[in-house]
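Q: How do we represent a protein-ligand complex in a form that can be generated cell by cell?
A: Start from the inputs.
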Amino acid sequence: MAKQPLIQAIRGMHDILPETSPLWHKVEGIIKSVLDSYGYQEIRLPVVEKTELFKRSIGEVTDIVEKEMYTFDDRNGDSLTLRPEGTAGCLRACLEHGLLHNQVHRLWYMGPMFRHERPQKGRYRQFYQLGIETYGMAGPDIDAEIILLSHRLWKKLGILPDLELQLNTLGTLAERLLYREKLVAYFNQHLDELDEDSLRRLETNPLRILDSKNPAMQSMLKNAPALMDSLGEDSLNHFNTLTGLLDELGVAYVINPRLVRGLDYYGKTVFEWVTDKLGAQGTICAGGRYDGLIEQLGGKNNYAIGFALGMERLLALVEQQEDFRPDAGVDVYVINVGENAARFAMKVSETLRDEVPGLKVVLHCGGGSFKSQFKKADKSGAEFGVIIGEDEAEHKLVSLKPLRSDDEQKNMSLEQLTTTLRQWKQS
Ligand code: ATP
Ligand code: MG
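Then emit the C-alpha cells for the protein with magnesium ion bound:
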C-alpha cells in the first residue's frame, strides 16, 4: 500500500485511474454510437447552477433538495449548488436560448453530478450520469423511442439479460391530486403501520411512501389503492399505446404500480431499468415524462421526456461480463538503446503514427537497458516490441518482436514495418 498523501480526496468522491479509463472509453464509445444512431445531439452544461433552479424543479420535499445538495454562497453572496442531476440545467439552458419555441430536440449530456449521500458501493457523492432529454414531443412514440434506445444500449453492452424494465404511469397532475387524497385516506386508516419516514411523508409527499423498502410495511402497501384506477382516458390511452409499441418491438417490461420516482416533476410515463446483480444499488437507469416542469420554470406549455443513467453502476454491471474487455491501450512499444537509436526511434514512432491509422505507439523515453525496457514493454500490454539498437539505427533497420506469441523476431526496413503493422491493424 502506497504511503497516504498529506491531503486525501473527499469521502465519496472517487478518482478514475488510468487502469480503468479504457473501460470507460469503451462504454462511452458504445453509448455515443447508439445515441448517434438515433440522431441525438450533445449539450454541455455548467456544473453549478443557482440553488433556486433545483428547489423549483426537483421539489422542496424530495430527498435531493432536503438533504443531498452541495449548496454554498459564492463571493457575491448568491446561493449556488453543484448540480445533483442534469434535467433542470438542461431545461434551463434550452429555455434561456429559445430552443423550445416550435422546435423538437433530442439531446444528451454526460458528466459528474453531486449528492451528499452516505457513500457505499454504487452510491457516491460525485458520480457520473448520462442524461438524455427530448423536447416538443407529446408521446407515446417518443416515450417508446427512449426506452428502445436504452434497450439497444444494453444489448450492445451484453447486459440486457441482467436488466428488467419496470414501467408505470403517474397520470396528470389533476389525476395525481385525486389519487393523493385516496391514498392519504388509506394511510390514515393504517397509521400504526407507517414508519417514522412515512409519517413525515404523509404530510409532504405521500406518493413516495409507496416507494418505501421497509419490509414491515410491504403487505400494507400492497393493498393500497393503485394510481392506475384514478387515471382518465387520455392517460390510459397514452400508457396502453406505449405498452403496445413495446410489445410489438419485443421489449419486455413489468408494470410496477408502486414506481413513483423520487422527483416531483414526473407525470404520465415513468420507468426504471433494474438489476439484481449489484446488491442494494440496483437501479441503473431511470426516467420519465416531465411536461409540467417546463411551465414551472417559466416556459410555455410543452412536452419533455428523458432518462438518467448512472455510469458507475452501469460499469459495475458491464465489468461482470467475462467477454467484455476494453481495448488495449498500446499496440507497439518502441525500445531503443543508444543516442542514435533514440533519435531514429523517435522518427520511426512518428512515421508509424503517420502511416498506420489508429495504431497506438508508445516510444520508450528516458533510456535504460534492453532488459528494463523489455519489462516495461511487457507491462504496457503492447502486442509488439519494435527494437532499435545502435546497429539498427546505423542501417535504418528495426526489429519487430511479437510480445504475446512465440512468433519469431524479424529484422526489417521501416517500410516493411509499416506494411506489416498496417496489415495487422486491419485484420
Ligand atoms: P436511488 O434510488 O438509487 O437513490 P435516485 O432515484 O436518487 O436513485 P436518479 O435521481 O433517478 O436516482 O438518478 C438516475 C441514476 O443515477 C440512478 O438510477 C443511479 O443509477 C444513478 N445515481 C443516482 N444517485 C447516485 C449516486 N449517489 N451514486 C451513483 N449513482 C447514482
Ligand atoms: Mg437517491
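Residues 85, 115, 117, 122-124, 127, 129, 262, 281, 283-286, 308, 310, 312-313 surround adenosine-5'-triphosphate (ligand 1) (CB under 6 Å). The longest strand covers residues 105-114.
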